[in-house]
Write a structure and sequence with these properties.
transmembrane helix; 3 domains; Methylamine utilisation protein MauE domain-containing protein; alpha/beta; five-stranded mixed sheet; Methylamine_util_MauE; transmembrane; Glutaredoxin
Length: 368
């Protein structure tokens, strides 16, 4: 039992550290997931949860850092009993979220491990139950974990360092871009290719005759068999990775292929109401410089705001150039920056830039 308890203790601490670091890698994505939960709760349980919506990014870094710190505290066995009680509160809270999402089909992806590992609601709930099991083993067998690896001032110092590192990782990612991009629009991906299925769909047919059911790889020509059901054998490979990328103008004309052809510098303005306006003098200089580049870079602006809102915004910040529209969720997946830049060559993502890291034209030309 001693060895089993130590294995559970190690797994419990490691999973919390891993989960927290994955979320801190992309705090904007974690904040978007929190917004989704708060919007659901505000509809189902009252408007109280709306007060958290303006603070999701702060909560994203706080909760993710807390996971890391608690994981470190578990592994150090620092104030283990108190740490385990805080862990229990978190596990019960997350367990409620995942069960509620699964049972009532509210949030289809819990974001437990960011975009690195996608879990269905029931898989997320099962994961929380496993963690509760690990917690119970550690809690009720704490006598096998009496040795503390950092006592007194040393323990406080380690926990302080862990807190500072975790918060620093999150704040750095928030002010720039994720360290690791797990989304379909990451650097190196060909958007056009990801809009096509990797394989042709393959099916199997369940047919019935005289009370007997039989599976066929091809639809039977024998009319005595009656159709019962059909199943796709390769659902992941036969479904495009990107299904909702579409660019259009104010009249509704599709410009998707135009965007995916040639050298394009996309300025993504997700929402004019929350876009950082202080950088637009520098942004405008880059757009003008790119248009004159010897590499024939065509700058385009893409937004999810309404035509009326964006027209007023572009005049306000003196934003030049052609602008198109796209779905808000697509733009949030493309880049975790509002505004932000994406450099494309025939639909291949060559580089991405946060508005805190606006490049010079020569850097764009080097990337091409």
């Amino acid at each position: 039992m001693k060895q089993f308890t130590r294995i559970c203790w190690l797994l419990l601490g490691a999973v919390f550290i891993f989960s927290g670091l994955i979320k801190l890698n992309d705090p904007v994505g974690t904040a978007l997931k929190l917004e989704e939960y708060f919007e659901v709760f505000s509809r189902d349980f009252g408007s109280f949860f709306k007060i958290f919506l303006p603070h999701t990014r702060l909560l994203s870094i706080f909760l993710s850092s807390l996971e890391v710190v608690l994981g470190v505290a578990v592994l150090l066995r620092w104030m283990l009993r108190q740490t385990l009680w805080v862990l229990l509160a978190l596990l019960v809270f997350f367990g409620f979220l995942t069960f509620y999402s699964a049972a009532f089909n509210k949030v289809t992806d819990c974001g437990c491990f960011g975009d690195f590992i996608k879990l269905t609601p029931w898989q997320s709930f099962a994961k929380d139950l496993v963690l509760l099991g690990l917690w119970a083993v550690v809690f009720f067998n704490e006598r096998y974990l009496r040795r503390v690896f950092a006592r007194g001032t040393l323990g406080v110092m380690y926990i302080t360092i862990a807190s500072a590192v975790a918060i620093g990782i999150g704040v750095r990612a928030l002010g720039h871009l994720p360290y690791f991009d797990f989304l379909p629009y990451k650097v190196g991906n060909d958007i056009g290719q990801l809009m096509k299925p990797r394989e042709q769909a393959r099916y199997q047919y369940v047919m019935e005759r005289n009370g007997e059911s039989k599976t066929f790889a091809d639809y039977p020509t024998d009319s005595t068999w009656k159709y019962k059901s059909m199943e796709v054998l390769n659902p992941e490979a036969s479904r495009p990775v990107i299904t909702d990328f579409a660019i259009f103008d104010a009249e509704g004309t599709d410009h998707t292929q135009e965007v995916l052809t040639g050298n394009k510098l996309l300025l993504i303005v997700q929402d004019v109401n929350s876009a950082d306006r202080d950088r637009f003098k520098e942004i405008n200089r880059l757009l003008e410089g790119a248009a004159k580049s010897r590499s024939q870079i065509k700058p385009l602006i893409i937004t999810s705001s309404s035509p009326q809102q964006f027209d007023a915004f572009r005049h306000d910040v003196n934003l030049p150039g052609t602008y198109y529209f796209a779905d808000a969720t697509v733009l949030k997946s493309m880049i975790r920056s509002n505004p932000g830049f994406i450099l494309l060559q025939n639909g291949v993502v060559l580089s991405k830039y946060h508005y805190h890291d606006i490049p010079v034209v020569s850097k764009l030309e080097e990337a091409l």
